[in-house]
Amino acid sequence: MANNLREFFISRIHSFRHAFAGWGFVIRTQRNAWIHAVASILVFFVALWLQISLQEWAVIILAITLVWTAEFLNTALEAVADLASNGQQNRLAKVGKDVGAAAVLIAALSSILIGLLILGPPLVERFGY
């Protein structure tokens, strides 16, 4: 029993190590991830400054994680498409990559809209426009 518990925790540590390796890969290799990072940090500090409600924080966090999740899944999809097509031009690999990129675009655009809806009114109020 103790050995099974030990193996369980060791396997969880390895799983986290793999997840962080994937995270590092995305940050190192995906230019758009840097755009997402800057936008995420900017939104975070603006939301702090505006002292938004807990419910608004929840929506902002969901919007940010939606974009990051789409970016990570798109990167995984691109890697699998490249592997499956063996570096050759392949119409279906292109479709997969294009659709994955569209998912990131949809997530980013919806997150911008959410950010404007939540942060826009208090920003307008602060600056008196």
Secondary structure blueprint with pairings:
Elements: H1 2-29, H2 31-50, H3 54-85, H4 91-127
Question: Which range does the strand content fall in?
Answer: under 5%
Q: Given the C-alpha coordinates, what overall shape results?
A: flat
In terms of quaternary structure, what is this?
A: single chain
How far apart the termini lie comes to 66 Å
Classify the helix fraction into a percent range: over 70%
Radius of gyration: 19 Å
Number of strands: 0
What fold name goes in the CATH topology slot? Helix Hairpins
Query: Number of domains in the coordinates?
Result: 1
Low-confidence stretches: none
Tally of separate helices: 4
CATH architecture: Orthogonal Bundle
SS-based structural class?
A: mainly alpha
Largest sheet: none
CATH class category name: Mainly Alpha
Order of helices and strands: HHHH
Mean pLDDT: 94
Q: What does this molecule look like?
A:
With 129 residues, this protein is mainly alpha-helical. It has a single domain (31-127), classed as Helix Hairpins (Orthogonal Bundle), CATH 1.10.287. It is 91% helix and 0% strand. The chain is flat and about 55 Å long.
Task: Describe this structure in a few short sentences.
The protein has a single domain, classed as Helix Hairpins. The chain is an all-alpha fold. It has helices spanning 2-29, 31-50, 54-85, 91-127.
